[in-house]
Amino acid sequence: MRKRISRYISLLLLLTSSCFFCSPVWAQRPGAHKAEPAQIKKEEKKKTEPEENVPLYQGMSIGVEIAGAGSYLLGSDILNSEIAVQANLKNRFLPVIEVGYGKADAINDGNNLHYKTSAPYFRIGMDYNVLYKKTHLPGYMYVGLRYGMSSFSYDVDGPSMTDPNYGGVISYPFSYSGLKSNASWLEGVFGLKVKIYKGFCMGWSVRYKMRMNVKGHENSIPWYVPGFGKNASSSFNLMYNLIYNLPF
């Protein structure tokens, strides 16, 4: 099942990249064909225009992450679903707010521990369009940074366990419910956004997540953190978004 999910995500990433680099707009970029003298002068004039002439506000967009919901529908024990609202300033700086919902209901195959949680999460950050001077492109490539946080409660329970060598009981059945926790983390982002039809776009991003803090308890620690993923010091995550540029 995981191989099938990875295959679908890889196809989506390939499709997005193909749209970006094979777009007719990209193919007709300045220099792709021999330009007329008037066109050359126009392009040179555009290059010499000071950046201050670019209006500050370039628009706003709203996006929905679909890879997490897709993997859940295909059988994953974990669900991540979120929306992002992003502003475009000078086609260069892209402040963003992300609000999502994370859920896990999983049993560890090795020790039969059952873990369950669900809660919202929040992120705030900024992206930087590294191709901001290429206004003729059908989208942009960006790098960014996020600060994420989540406050949640979780349930964990497990059966008795015996020593596989000597047969003695090493753990008795237990059940803890409603354990409260909170977490915070940082994310480094690299991504691509491509216009596909009028105001509609699609894009993908790779995220490197670095855990800052996760509150645990005397008898257990969270196995999964909404918005961050499995509780580890760091992890990678692939995201795929459908985006709409708002008409104002």
What's the short version?
The chain contains four helices and twelve strands, in the order αααβαβββββββββββ.
Explain what the structure shows.
- It is a single chain.
- An eight-stranded antiparallel β-barrel has the order 1-2-3-4-5-8-9-12.
- A hairpin with a 3-residue loop joins strand 2 and strand 3.
- The chain has a single domain (2-245), classed as Porin, CATH 2.40.160.
- It is built from four helices and twelve strands.
- By secondary structure, the protein is α+β, with helices and mostly antiparallel strands.
Q: What distinguishing features does this structure have?
A:
single chain; 248 residues; alpha+beta; Porin; eight-stranded antiparallel β-barrel; two-stranded antiparallel sheet; elongated; disordered N terminus
Task: Kindly estimate the percentage of residues that lie in beta strands according to DSSP.
Answer: over 45%
- In whole angstroms, the N-to-C terminal distance is 42 Å
Number of helices: 4
Shape: elongated
Strand order of the largest sheet: 1-2-3-4-5-8-9-12
Q: Encode the helix/strand succession as letters.
A: HHHEHEEEEEEEEEEE
Global Rg: 23 Å
Query: What is the structural class?
Result: alpha+beta
**Percentage of residues in helical conformation:** 10-25%
CATH architecture: Beta Barrel
Q: In CATH, what is the class?
A: Mainly Beta
Biggest sheet character: 8 strands, antiparallel, barrel
- Total number of β-strand segments? 12
List segments where confidence is low: pLDDT < 50 over at least 5 consecutive residues.
Answer: 1-33
CATH topology: Porin
- Round the mean pLDDT to the nearest integer and report it: 83
Number of structurally distinct domains: 1
